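Table S2 (text version). Query chain:
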Amino acid sequence: MKLLENSSFEAINSQLTVETGDAHIIGRIESYSCKMAGDDKHMFKQFCQEGQPHVLEALSPPQTSGLSPSRLSKSQGGEDEGPLSDKCSRKTLFYLIATLNESFRPDYDFSAARSHEFSREPSLSWVVNAVNCSLFSAVREDFRALKPQLWNAVDEEICLAECDIYSYNPDLDSDPFGEDGSLWSFNYFFYNKRLKRIVFFSCRSISLRTATHPPGPAARLVARLH
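Corresponding structure-token output:
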């Protein structure tokens, strides 16, 4: 995975890391190429020892909706698909994990992440609404002005209409940012298979009143971004 330069994202990221009075909002949008080279190829070879790239892995239902995409409709046979019917190939799962590794390097290694920690989102509108609600509730009018710029930049980079959208939703024990004072967070992957590219949108809110001292990983991330 290679981080792709995007001046629009850099400008937006500077506005997504702010203090709101009682919380610290830490957000960033990054674009990654899925073309593997060097360490990625070695990691992918190890990853495939547990299953071939085309093998499908079960995902957890999305948190942004009470229904998973495949449970919004029934199969051709008329039977329900089941609570863990959403799946992705192991190769796609590798791309998601490799994106996390590259984005949070060197603080965390996500190589042990499993498919049940990821979800496929029901639709673009679900995700846009979830992001907009979280950020508007946090920064109010500042986000109203940023919103069209943000989504236009993402669309220009990844062509949202062509994307499968995934999220990373670890439990508290394995969440690297599940520190004291964490109010909410989201981690979305916009994957365009044709472009062989992923746009990763990560954001969280940390309470200034209960944030850990010495600084936790979120604070260290802010220091790196600045």
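Notes on Table S2: Residues 2-61+85-207 form a domain with the Protein Transport Mog1p; Chain A fold (CATH 3.40.1000.50). The radius of gyration is 18 Å.
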